[in-house]
Amino acid sequence: MLIFKLYPSNLTKFHIGDSNRNLKDFFSSDQLFSSLYNCGVLMFDKNDQFFDELKKVTISSMMPGIKIIAGEKEREILFLPKPILPIDNSNSNDDEISTNKKYKRIRYVSIEAFKELQFKWNQNNEKLEFDFNPFISIGGSYIYTKEELAGLNITTNLDNVKLLQKKTLPKVVISRLDDTSENFFFQEEVEVNYFKKGNLTLKPFYYFICREEVSLKFKAVVRLLADEGIGGKRSLFHGIFEKVVEEQFEENLINNNGNLFMSLSSVIPQKEELSKLMYYDLEERNGYIYSTTGRSYRKKTIRVIKEGSIFSGNIEGNILETQYDVFNKHPIFQYGRAFLIPFGEVNR
């Protein structure tokens, strides 16, 4: 099992949108699949084996990580999507409203924090017994355990640190004919901001996991993706990465057995798999078909299951091939393979 880590430089801009024209700070697996496919088109013939391999590989969404540099010591923390679950705060020192607010603000949990949450699931009342006290927050959106920073001697309060900031910039359209200004508008973007204080530096990065082993061609396409960029506004150098690292993913939480499963990818379940859905959020996919063969056409709206959704059993998901009367240059795929990890009662 491989993990690909992609490191942006400081002040790198990203423009990753959703169906409501809002910005996201992560790159879903179906968007990642499309970007890899388009990069493959730039490198290989349309009949190359890479495209068959890509459709068979199970990839996670591109999720955030943080590289922590404290003096001469370095450590990386990988984050997973927060489980979409009802919570029980009866064992918490905070009141119910405070606990609910804190849990709602959380968007990502570190791998070690996820392991702790696994054992907080109460199968009897089907709620997560959440207590914020054992965890530390970065910016209110990321939580990790104290043990993950052991030995780094970090005393700085990181609760207000924002490593990925959404910014709104005023823009104006300039006429190509006479250079006059026309429509005034606002453009949103997500900007990478390294945090530096004394000898402490925090650098955000992205990563995704491949469940299967992949070819050298696949690895080459990932490196091209880093140069081409992800998301929109790539002509303005948005979404570019300065470094790619590939290595074996050693965490055993992927291979454990559990009574529940959480998704690390956006999922399109097969019809017979719908009964295994327990707790989930839906997200729409629409927009335009991006093709190197000519003009773009509007896509059909498809709903996918979001990352962090909970299933009662393991599923495979699906890859949809959609047909369009006005577009027949090549097939259009919607990636929805399920990358699930155990949740609940697992063996340590």
Automatic annotation (TrEMBL):
Stretches assigned to the Csm4 C-terminal domain: 257-342
RNA-binding listed as a keyword: yes
Transmembrane segments: none
Domain of life: Bacteria
Example GO BP: defense response to virus
Family: Belongs to the CRISPR-associated Csm4 family.
Name this protein carries in UniProt: CRISPR system Cms protein Csm4
Organism name: Anaerobranca gottschalkii DSM 13577
